[in-house]
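[agent] plan:
  1. take the single chain provided in the ticket
  2. run structure prediction with default settings
  3. attach structure tokens to the ticket
  4. add a short note for the reviewer (M.T.)
[agent] executing step 1
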Amino acid sequence: MKIKIFSLICCIFILLPFPVLAYTALIGTPAQYDDTFLAELSQKHQRLTSIDSKKAVLIGGSSLAFGIDSQLLEEYIGMPVVNYGLYAAIGTKAMLDMSEKYINEGDIVVICPETEAQTYSLYYNAESILQATDGNLSLLLDSGFSNYGKIISGLPAFAKSKLSFYK
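[agent] step 2 finished; step 3 output follows
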């Protein structure tokens, strides 16, 4: 009986700080990454979700974000273009997972991975995703259930970086 009580007390003291840390990092402090390039994810996602017609969706990293003239491409192909390129270190998987449910039949999807191993794999950088969604946490709902464990495991590093900026 004493061992069970001791184990329960240990678990409470070990696990209790985690929800407090998560709350503090996600909700308890103002967004710290709103003025960074990563915060552009919110506008890119809004564009993706606002187009009901057939569209071209370009998915990739920053070379796509900076290297494609979406308006010119839109004029050339005669349909809306969504440049869903942001940051290679986030991982191609993250960008694919976040866009998947907004890609419809008839849409053109072009995947433009950058030339590094992370973009050709199932790599998922939870800390970067948390930074990119810092000002719009609802985007995490589109991250996909399979990534929630990664997001939770990325919370300590994210909390540390966010709170260090907040100080």
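[agent] step 4 note for reviewer: Residues 13 and 137 are 28 Å apart (CA to CA).
[agent] ticket updated
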